[in-house]
Amino acid sequence: MAPRTRAPKREILGWAMFDFANQAYTLLIITVVFGDLFTRVIVGDGPDYRLGNFLWGLALSISYLMVVVSAPVVGAVVDHTARRKQFLFGTYLLCVVTTAMLWLVAPGLILLGVVLIVLSNFAYALGEALIASFLPSLGPPEDLGKISGFGWSLGYVGGMVSAMFVLLVLGDVS
Is 171 domain-assigned? Predict the structure, then answer.
């Protein structure tokens, strides 16, 4: 077997930019904006928001359980069919569509919010597994730590950019 060579810089940058873009989802949807909106407004069971927090945790748990069950099967199918990019695009499309549909979730539409966040986060997390599977093809084993770290660092930059954008657009909404 011939030793692997490092992929072109453009390909490595494209792979790393996926992390840049993905951080907006985890930061804004899962961690800061929509999670808080779900518990405080959509469920709105103040003053302690127990039900909202419970349902948010349950929705995320269900989505991750779906990933645990489906990822080995999807991985085997992807390896067998060599259609990794198509599967990645499918997860990306499902995540984008279901995340956009969160706009429809008004106060009291709790079940719709739970279903959409389960599907959205499932697609996001499965996509994360798929994008990680590209890493070994980007370079020889001794370069993979640097390449992975580059993607990780761009992810943090993406998170900061998305947070600044939201602060500029929405201002202080606390």
Answer: no
Whose structure tokens read 């198509």? 86
Indicate the pTM of the whole model: 0.91
In whole angstroms, give the CA distance from residue 80 to residue 8: 25
17-22: long-range contacts, CB 8 A cutoff, minimum separation 24: 17/154, 18/131, 18/151, 19/131, 19/151, 19/152, 19/154, 19/155, 19/158, 20/154, 20/155, 20/157, 20/158, 20/161, 21/158, 22/124, 22/127, 22/128, 22/131, 22/155, 22/158
pLDDT tens, per residue, the chain with 174 residues: 566 788 999 999 999 999 999 999 999 999 988 999 999 999 998 888 999 999 999 999 999 999 999 999 999 999 999 999 999 999 999 999 999 999 999 999 999 999 999 999 999 999 999 999 999 999 999 999 999 999 999 999 999 999 999 889 887 766
- Give how many domains the chain has, as a whole number: 1
Q: Looking at the domain assignment, is residue 48 inside a domain?
A: yes
Q: Residue 57 belongs to what domain range?
A: 9-164
> Tokens 């697609």 label which residue?
123
